[in-house]
Amino acid sequence: MPNFVERVKTAQELEAAQAKRREWGLPMVLIFSSSGATSSTLKALSTAYRRRLLVVEHKAGKGGSEVARRFGVTAFPAVLGFPAEQDEPVAFEKKPTHNMLDGFFRKLALKQAVLRKPKPEAPKEEL
Question: Which terminus of the chain, N or C, has less C-beta within 10 A?
Answer without folding.
Answer: C
